Amino acid sequence: MTDRFLSIHGHFYQPPREEPFTGKIPREVGAEPFHDFNEKITAECYQPNAAEGNFEHISFNLGPTLAAWMSTWAVDTWQRIIQSDRANVERFGAGNALAQSAHHTILPLARRRDKIAQVAWGIASFEYRFGRKPEGMWLPEMAVDLITLEILSRRGLSYTILSEEQVQGEVHGDAGPYRVRLPGGGFFAVFVRDRHLSDQLSFDTDRIADGRRWLADQARGRQGLTLIATDGETFGHHQRRGVQLLADMLRNDTESAYQIVTLSDYLRTHPPTREVEILERTAWSCNHHLGRWDRGCGCTLGDHSWKPILRSALDLLADEIDAIYLYELQRLFGNPWLLVDQYIDVVLGIADLGMLLRENTAARLTTGQSLRIGKLVQAQLHRQRMFTSCGWFFEKLDRPEPRYVIAQAMRAIQLVKQAVGTDLGPDFREALCAAKCGRGKAIPGVPTHTAADLYDEIAVANQIG
Ligand SMILES: [Zn+2]
Q: What's the whole-model pTM score?
């Protein structure tokens, strides 16, 4: 048996597709003959990979929004995936699933308080779905900073995955694990993926005729652990032959170039001794210090001036929502933010909101107070969802993803208004006016279409006055 090790990590994720006002997934163009992309990608990727047994041998994370959908609409596939993690726990004493922060928010761009909520919700969702505590956490887009790693560490997590271009120091061409020094003391473990191999498998799959031979060719001169990490949908959805290719590569026998391992298991037997530094505010799919989701960058073509405007409009709105939240709750609750962290149990359907409120205050709440506070807590959920990274991922503002984040903002605004009567809508709409859509050609004398027009369209579609 070789002493070279290989782990293949799949990041399985779909954005939330439900309309925030109805909770229903609309029929999606391009998904035909399926109703929507969740169904289509399940048929092409999740289901066949689960049936093939691939989930048992890879390392993987499956985003909370996708897990929520799959556990309702693709129950057999979901059960097989859960069972794969359990089989690893039984065999090695360590599962192969990682948690993921809740809403695919770019954590280094988020406020400290939002980082805490996203991580807390990601852990709670994982524990509910997988029935155990997570050891590792996937960071959306691998976007990293030290504060985020410190929060993961404080919440009891042990490791994450980064790409080789995000670290510097004693990296010797292997995946580690390495340790990163935290500003508050102590260390956090990171596995470092091989970017070249990961990209080749993801984007150059056609050139890989035989997965096992490809791995053997790459194995020469390597030592320790090699990590390939990519979108899980590569296997079957982006690349049709990916399911079988993956199954071939995962087969462990005496002729394998590598021993196939999972990350939690490997970490136990190989605690990190070498230290690296992370390059803060970097990600795996943008080389411009998170510009893709912030000020705009060369990763997307065309006019991306709308990106910082949309983000700052949402940041301002979040400030307003939080100010009202604290003003209303501070008098009654010792720690109003703890209530937000615990609200995930209501979202998951394992706690009752009334009970949660009673547990967090010594005050006897009237029915009116409970209703009002309940709406403000619910507004915090939509306020979190409005920062999902897909809103900024593409070049155009006039796409479903930016519409989704604006719609989430509007749902939060509606709940705040119902709770306390304050209408945050006009200021938010005003802040959107400068974000140009680029829809059609600018005609002299005709006003340009902006994000405020999208706001109006969403308002009409959902009959919001
Ligand atoms: Zn970029």
A: 0.95
